[in-house]
Design goal:
This protein has nine helices and four strands; from the N terminus they run αααααααββααββ. The protein is α+β, with helices and mostly antiparallel strands and 264 residues long. A hairpin with a 4-residue loop joins strand 1 (184-193) and strand 2. Mean pLDDT is 81; it is low at 1-9, 84-99 and 101-105. It has a four-stranded antiparallel beta sheet with strand order 1-2-4-3. Helix content is 58%, strand content 12%.
Length: 264
């Protein structure tokens, strides 16, 4: 009993650290809590907190992190405004020297292994443009809302998976969720490298079968769900590429999963 209590306490401390880091990121970068990776991460943390019987504690830690992140963002904005209003005089030699071009921003990575696919601003713009396109078509708008809900529901189910005895079992459990929901049919793991977090698999998919024939791969939503399975399995963000699609006359879709950052 003592050993179990100690393990539970350690798990709760780790959960609070994750909640605080997420809150700090949300507050500092003004992320939207109800969409995308933030929603998935927050849901996973709060579900774990419920299991620990510590939802209120973990929620308070998350909110504290969010407040501190927002305060940091406000200080940065105020500092930028102050520097803009009262520019410091520079030596003549410095004024004559051309400024180097700013380095292109790379993908952001947090301590928990998450790597951005695109910036939150890009994601928001694309969402707005897509919703503008379907706003005059009630059926298209209904389908778009259902698409968001369906993807997020599957992501939550994947993130709620308990750890298996090994990573391959965990990965296969994620595939089973997609199979049970009808996203994929027959699946075959061609390779599974646990140390490198690299996986290749073949599968028939409902999307490819529904489209019939296409010159290019079509199963991007399944790639996104496989990325969530990869994250749940390996603990780092992964990129999934559909190398071949069943709609291209290949018989099945072939996916490759690789880490976006070095695995832990």
């Amino acid at each position: 009993m003592l050993h179990w209590a100690q393990a539970q306490g350690s798990g709760l401390a780790d959960l609070k650290r994750k909640a605080f880091r997420l809150g700090l990121d949300v507050g500092e970068n003004n992320h939207i809590e109800t969409v995308g990776w933030v929603r998935s991460e927050l849901t996973a943390i709060m579900n774990a907190a419920i299991k620990e019987g510590a939802l209120k504690e973990v929620r308070e830690v998350y909110e504290r992190g969010k407040r501190e992140g927002a305060a940091k963002r406000h200080r940065q904005v105020a500092g930028q405004r102050g520097a803009s209003a009262v520019p410091a005089a520079a030596p003549a030699s410095a004024r004559r020297a051309p400024r180097p071009a700013p380095a292109a921003p790379g993908p952001r990575k947090d301590p928990e292994g998450f790597v951005e696919r695109i910036s939150p601003q890009q994601g928001l713009k694309s969402t707005i443009r897509t919703m503008q396109r379907v706003s005059r078509d009630p059926e298209a708008k209904k389908d778009l809302n259902a698409l968001f809900a369906g993807i997020f529901d599957m992501q939550e189910r994947i993130l709620d998976l308990g750890p298996g005895p090994d990573r391959k079992t965990t990965f296969e459990a994620g595939l089973r969720l997609l199979y049970d929901a009808g996203w994929v049919e027959e699946c075959e793991l061609a390779s599974f490298d646990e140390a490198k977090a690299v996986v290749t698999l073949r599968s028939t998919t409902a999307i490819a079968k529904a489209f019939g024939h296409s010159a290019v791969p079509l199963c991007q939503p399944i790639c996104n769900l496989l990325e969530t399975i990869g994250r749940r399995t390996f603990g780092v963000s992964v990129a999934v590429t559909e190398l071949e699609c069943g709609a291209q006359g290949k018989g099945a879709c072939r996916f490759e999963i690789v880490p976006r950052a070095p695995p832990r």
